[in-house]
Amino acid sequence: MKILHINDQAGVACILAKYQNMNEIESKVLVSNSILTTFNFDKFGILKYYNDQVKVIEGLNFIKYVISEADKADVIHIHSKEEIVVKLRQIFGNSKKIILHYHGTDIRGFRPKYSILKNVKTKTKIFAVNVRTRLRLMNLGYYKSLEKLHSESQRLADQVIVSTPDLLTLITNSRYLPNPVDLEHFSDSKNKRNDMQYNNNALTIQTETGNSQKTLQYCKTNNINFKIDIFDRTKKPLSYQDIPNLLKKYSVYVDIRIVNGKILENLSKTALESLSCGLKVLNYKLEYIDKFPEVHNPIKVINQLHNIYKTI
Fold first, then answer.
1. Which residues of 68-94 are buried (b: 16+ CB within 10 A; e: fewer)?
2. pLDDT score for 293
3. Please, what's the b/e burial string for 2-16 (b: 16 or more CB within 10 A of its CB; e: otherwise)?
C-alpha cells in the first residue's frame, strides 16, 4: 500500500510516515514552501528533523506535483489543506481513497491577537490567519466562504479524521485518531537529564493559540502555588530537535490551555511528549498524570489508521 501525506501539522504527518515506513508501508509527505507560507515555513524545524520522510515542493509547482504523485498512491491523506481534497476529487473521481485530517484550529478556529498586517485601503488591523487563508484559497481559485469549503471537502473525502475528541462534535461521521508521539525522539532513556541543569519548577509553553497568563491565573485561583516557568515559543522558536532537552529540565508540565475563552480538555501534543520524557503533567482538572497513554504509541496509531484505510 502506498500512502501519500499532503501537508503536515505539528509533525503528525511526518511521524505517521516515519512509522509507516518502519512497518513496511510505503509512505511520504509532500509540503509546499509557497510565498504565502515562506515567512513561517518550518519555523520549528520539524520538516528538517524528518527530512527522510518529507519532500518540499516549490509553491508554484506544488499542485501539479501533488497530482502526479497522487496518481501513484493508494491512499491520499490530506492534513488540513481542504482545497486539495476538492481538486483531487475533480481529477480522479472516485478512483482514489482520500482522507481529510483536521488537527484543531484548522476546523475549530481561534481568535488570535491582532496582526501587524493592515488593510491597505482602510488602514485597519486585520487577522493574519484570515488573510493567509483567504489569499491561499483565492490564489487557487476556490471558495470565498470558508464554511462552504469545509462542507464541500468533508463531503468529498472518503473519511474525515480528527486529532482530538472535542472535534468529533464539529463534524458528523468523523473518526478520532490519537496524535502519535515519536517515542524514539521523546524518550526518558535518551539524553538523560543533566542533574546540574535539572530543577523542580514546572513548565508551560506559550503558543500562538493559548494564553499562558490565563493559565497562571487559573492555577493561582485554584491554589496551585509552585513556580511555573513560561517558555514563549511565539517569541523564541524552539527547534523540534531540542524540545526533549528543554522538557527534561523540569519535573512537571502544566497543560492548562485556554483557547477562545474555553479550557481544552484533551492532552496537548507537548503534554504527551512530556510524559514520554518522564515528566508529570498537570491537566485541566488539576490532576497529575504520570503515565504515557498507550493510545498515542505510534505503532498503535498507524495500526488504527491502517484499519481505517482498509475499510473506506
1. ebbeebebbbbbbbbbbbbbbbeebee
2. 97
3. ebbbbbbbbbbbbbb
Break the chain into its structural domains and give their ranges: 2-180+297-311, 202-295
Considering the entire predicted model, what is its pTM? 0.85
Domain 2-180+297-311, CATH number (from 3.40.1180.10, 3.40.50.2000, 3.40.50.11540, 3.30.70.3280) = 3.40.50.2000
Angle at 108 between CA 103 and CA 111, to 5 degrees: 120
pLDDT tens sequence across 34-68: 755 555 689 899 999 999 999 999 888 999 999 99
Residue 79: predicted pLDDT: 97
Q: C-alpha 57: how far from its chain's center?
A: 20
Residue whose C-alpha is closest to residue 133's, from 154, 110, 156: 110
Q: Which residues, 6 or more positions from 226, have their beta carbon under 8 angstroms from its beta carbon?
A: 201, 202, 252
- Alpha-carbon dihedral of residues 251, 256, 257, 263, nearest 10 degrees? 170
Residues 294, 178: Cα–Cα separation, whole Å: 10
Angle between helices 298-311 and 12-22 (to 10 degrees): 90
pLDDT tens column, 166-217: 899 989 899 999 999 999 999 987 545 554 356 678 999 988 877 889 999 9
Q: In the chain, which ranges are continuous DSSP H helix?
A: 12-22, 46-49, 62-70, 82-92, 105-108, 128-139, 146-156, 212-221, 243-247, 269-276, 298-311
What is the DSSP annotation of 224-288? --S-EEEEETTTS---GGGHHHHHTT-SEEE---EETTEE--SPPHHHHHHHHTT-EEE-TTS-E
Q: Residue with C-alpha cell 464554511?
A: 147
Query: Which CA distances in Å does 184 have to 42, 251, 260, 299?
Result: 21, 20, 34, 12
For residue 132, what are the β-bridge partners? none
| pLDDT tens column, 115-134 | 333 333 333 333 344 445 54
